[in-house]
Give the backbone structure.
Amino acid sequence: MERQGPLLDGDKLHFVASSTAIDKSVSVLIYFSEHTHEYPMTAKKRASAKAKPRRRVAPTRPVGRRAQNKQAIRQRIVTAALKLFQTKGFDATTTRAIARKAGIAEGTVFNYFRTKEDIALYFFEQEVDQAIAAVRENPRLRKAPLEEKLFTLVHSQLEFLAPYERFIGAAFIQALKPASPLGAFSHRAQELRHRYVGFVQELLEESLPNHRHTPVSWLAPQTFWIYYLGTLLYWLHDTSPGKQNTLAFLDRSLSLGVSMLKPGKK
């Protein structure tokens, strides 16, 4: 992961003002995340389709051109917004500027996203989607240790965010505002967190199916979300070449944390 330039002045003022208080909490978050237990879940089952006798199965209809065009416009809006968030700063970017950058009318932007915060949330949903896919669609990880699956999950997220590091720093500060659509109390942000936590729960159950459940084990997936946020903050401050310090931290902390979930560990 290549080191990005410093935060823009507008975003940097917010980031510096908040970083001292945030940094003090990182060690607590990560320590807590390393001493949790398994969170139970019900194993996912694949539904098998029944072949109907004497009837051919109709081929899957391709996505219509209209749907493809809509998706292309949506992605063009997101790409234009991210470039502006990165260069001008999140606060300074307007929907009018996004529309101009995307080469569409401002009204068209509102047909897809109500606010620029909605665009940012859509980007973070893409981040989680691709990270989950990176784990699920990798045959090598099916029988891999839990710590390797979790490493791949977080590493995929950081790789996805890397080109927009300046914006991520500003978005992190936005998320600390209670009324922000990017904050923990917004409906879409909660849905995103629940989907992420549910997938971590799934990985725990797959990798440690016979582990004895304890009251603390119910906190494990929720705590992993906090662990990820702490890792993200660490990554934002990491000045080592290629973010190697972050990767080393992930490797050590996940190995230690997973070892405490296994039988015989306290």
Q: What stands out?
A: The CA atoms of residues 70 and 112 lie 9 Å apart. The chain has a mean pLDDT of 79. The first helix runs from residue 9 to 33. The two ends are 35 Å apart (CA to CA).
